[in-house]
Amino acid sequence: xxxxxxxxxxxxxxxxxxxxxxxxxxxxxxxxxxxxxxxxxxxxxxxxxxxxxxxxxxxxxxxxxxxxxxxxxxxxxxxxxxxxxxxxxxxxxxxxxxxxxxxxxxxxxxxxxxxxxxxxxxxxxxxxxxxx
Length: 132
Fold this sequence. Notes:
Elements (H helix, E strand, L loop, with lengths): L15 H4 L14 H13 L8 E3 L3 H12 L8 E3 L16 H10 L15 H6 L2
Parallel strand pairs: 1-2
Helix pairs in contact: 2-3
């Protein structure tokens, strides 16, 4: 007997912070932009015939909205979305809400590079990987 398994991973749609190249991390719970909703809608149309058995999402607004729009377009709508804080993106501490260029400058000043640099109040890559 052959066991068949498929995993579909989708990043949330665009937010205003994405468009403006600002770091969101975990401390900025920015909703989807108009373009983000269009992207989620397009993903939902593309995946409309996929029969998902489980749907997991970060508990942040942008991820919740993306998952909801995708499932609204799916023929198998009667599935519950399971929200999990462990699916959040990396925490960037004091850099959240600021331009990505500022994070790069902070890393350079510390003698390192992104993504290995951890700003004050942020989480290390190791901490992020240990979430799951």
